[in-house]
Design goal:
alpha+beta, flat
Length: about 700
């Protein structure tokens, strides 16, 4: 229980520094003997630890004042009463003259330090070697919002968020000029260890609230940056800029203005616009306070300048004018050059797409679209390193073909390429398939069998449908990825392997990780190089190539001769969304070849779900006929709009429509945007 007693200080000088030192020593003795903590308070202030010298000095207890002594614990009563008797003693010491003089020095020094600490504008926090706060001045209270009574005697790390005083004490290294955020305040702190007699006694932190200064500094920095950016903009723009003050004196011209008017800075700065051009647009705007826009003037025989002049209004008064001029002649020349450059760039881009070929190892992957080329470019880069590759894409997009290409284009191409379909192997057999088993490991294990990883040594293992792997196997696979070793089922020996791992999935592994169906650590181990294969509906321009490839392959195997697809059939195949992707397309070609009796595959022979629209007729042609005699002749833009609209409706993409019309896809895209035809491209999935 808690015990409190009152002691009356009888010592003639009150509790000065030397007496307080004796009290602190006595308190330490009592606390160790009675296993309790002693606290003192005076004039209804908060209780402070009796072992805290600076906190007791701060109480400034004088002769005749009452001091409350309290403690908590089983032996609290004995400790409190003994401390009361000690406080009410006369603290007698030998050689009073010398001790009195020494007391005066200590007392005066303590009072001076207290006054200095209290008067400081900066926060001051002092801790002992145990990180207990011994000094917490008023400025520290104001900056931190923590009262000293609550802070004194408490660990600094509990009172001050982010305190590093305990680190300074331990490391014995100062930390100077450190920024720190305390509540809503930004402070700059100097932390220094307190060293006495070669030993660290604690640490001191002096800090200042620089929130206002930080705000002003930030604003000044923003203004400076804004000024520099504005200056850079003015110096960089191709329009000429001229600024004159309220008296018409030119104060600024940018380099473009000097180039356009063919004059030097020295010829213009400081000159009056009234003298240079009395009837000019700048002088009129300055006199009237109204903008003068679109003013045309000529310099020489071949230069035409257009100027826009605006007054600068400050507090309702005209403070000057700013003139922005353009060299129209130069603008026409630049537009011509720009058009030429754009045409060349478009030509070179098309040539690059035509000449860019993937690595020979990827020749089995049919496709020339941009997305396919991007995917194969990533695959070629992946083949040059040994990192794990995760191939993602819908079923039937050719993930295994790309995995083969990476293997045969890599340094381990001389080794085996081992395929494992994780979804096709029963979970209870998957471990044996991957890692092998020893003889007698389970019923039916009549001999030792090497696993797929062992067979893939010095080569590549392709783990297809990795998202279907059970979680217990995911843990074992993770070990192989990390340690490059495993044990056979029923065996104890660790087998080291050098294997390149390529995984593939058609599932969203991120969602599976979030739902707890796939281990997060395994996901990050697999997803080192991620490669996304686009579905067939996103690369429709590759459909004719794929149809030609599979038709030729199937005809050779079946001993048939079929010339190709009729136009109407090709249109229907181009418009289908192909949810099964390339695999579905190949199966459809095999079916058509097996069932047709004709030399060419016609629209009528397609499955019903592909024949969602009637065959195209001549009326659907993108060609627009000229008007007969007597009919109104429309503007060229109207005919152009109709042609592009019909082409987009038929072919469904800018690229396909451009090929049909003999134009580039960029030209078709620009025209479609101009005429508002972008919504014409709508791919509809037919009903099955």
């Amino acid at each position: 229980m808690q015990v409190t007693r009152t002691a009356v200080i009888r010592h003639g000088k009150g509790l000065h520094a030397r007496v307080i030192a004796m009290i602190v020593q006595k308190a330490h003795e009592l606390q160790e003997r009675h296993r309790t903590a002693l606290f003192l308070s005076c004039r209804r202030r908060e209780h402070v630890p009796a072992t805290n010298l600076m906190a007791l000095v701060a109480l400034s207890i004088r002769q005749g004042e009452q001091v409350q002594v309290s403690a908590d614990g089983a032996a609290a009563l004995e400790a409190v009463e003994e401390m009361v008797r000690f406080l009410e003693s006369d603290f007698s010491m030998e050689d009073d003259t010398i001790i009195s003089q020494l007391d005066k020095v200590i007392h005066d020094s303590a009072i001076t330090a207290e006054q200095v600490f209290s008067s400081m504008a900066n926060g001051l926090v002092v801790t002992d070697r145990n990180d207990m706060i011994t000094v917490f001045n008023p400025a520290a209270e104001r900056i931190t919002g923590v009262p000293a009574a609550k802070a004194l005697g408490q660990p600094a790390m509990n009172i001050l968020p982010g305190s590093r005083l305990h680190i300074v004490t331990r490391e014995q290294m100062p930390e100077l000029g450190r920024h720190q955020v305390l509540g809503n305040s930004v402070i700059i702190t100097n932390r220094t260890p307190i060293v006495a007699d070669g030993e660290v006694q604690g640490a001191v932190a002096i800090f200042e609230d620089i929130s206002s200064l930080e705000k002003i500094t930030g604003e000044l920095k923003e203004i400076k940056e804004l000024k520099e950016r504005l200056q850079l903009v003015l110096e960089s723009v191709q329009d000429g800029i001229c600024v004159a003050d309220s008296h018409g004196i030119i104060t600024y011209v940018n380099p473009a203005y000097l180039r356009i008017v063919e004059q030097s800075r020295e010829e213009l700065i400081g000159r009056n616009i009234g003298e240079l051009s009395p009837a000019g647009a700048r002088n009129r705007a300055l006199a009237s306070g109204q903008p003068v826009l679109g003013h045309i003037s000529r310099k020489g025989d071949n230069v035409t300048i257009v100027a826009n002049v605006n007054p600068i209004i400050v507090d309702g008064e005209v403070a000057g004018v700013v003139s922005v001029v353009k060299n129209v002649t130069e603008l026409h020349s630049l537009m011509h050059k720009l058009n030429q450059t754009a045409a060349k760039a478009e030509y070179f881009e098309q040539e690059l797409l035509r000449t860019k070929k993937p690595d020979k190892a990827f020749e089995t992957f049919i496709g020339r679209s941009g997305k396919v080329r991007d995917a194969l470019a990533v695959a070629a880069k992946a083949a040059a390193v040994t990192a794990t590759v995760l191939i993602r894409g819908e079923s039937g997009t050719g993930k295994e073909l790309v995995a083969e290409g990476i293997h045969f284009a890599s340094r381990c191409s001389a080794g085996p390429f081992i395929r494992v379909n994780c979804a096709a192997i029963p979970p209870n057999l998957l471990e044996s398939e991957l890692f092998g088993h020893e003889k007698g490991a389970f019923t039916g294990a009549l001999r030792r069998k090497p696993g797929k990883f062992e067979l893939a040594h010095k080569g590549t293992i392709f783990l297809d449908e990795i998202g279907e792997m059970p979680k217990d196997m995911q843990v074992k696979l993770l070990r192989v990825l990390q340690q490059k070793e495993f044990s056979r089922v029923g065996g104890e020996d660790q087998i080291k392997v050098d294997v390149r791992i390529i995984a593939a999935t058609n599932r969203n592994l991120e969602d599976m990780v979030e739902q707890g169906e796939f281990r997060e650590d395994l996901y990050y181990r697999l997803n080192v190089i991620s490669l996304l294969l686009p579905p067939l509906r996103e690369r429709r321009e590759d459909i004719p190539l794929l149809l030609e490839h599979f038709l030729g392959k199937t005809c050779r195997e079946a001993g048939r001769e079929i010339s190709g697809f009729a136009r109407e059939a090709m249109e229907a195949l181009m418009q289908y969304n192909w949810p099964g992707n390339v695999r579905e397309l190949e199966n459809m070609v095999e079916r058509l070849v097996a069932l047709t009796d004709r030399p060419q595959l016609e629209w009528e022979e397609l499955p019903a779900y592909l024949r969602t629209a009637s065959p195209l007729t001549a009326a659907d042609s993108p060609v627009v006929t000229l008007p007969d005699e007597g009919e109104d002749v429309l503007k060229w833009e109207e005919y152009e709009k109709r042609i592009i609209q019909k082409a987009l409706k038929r072919y469904g993409s800018f690229n396909a429509a451009g090929k049909a019309l003999g134009l580039t896809h960029k030209t078709i895209g620009a025209k479609a945007q101009k005429y508002g035809l972008s919504k014409t491209i709508v791919w509809q999935t037919p009903e099955v």
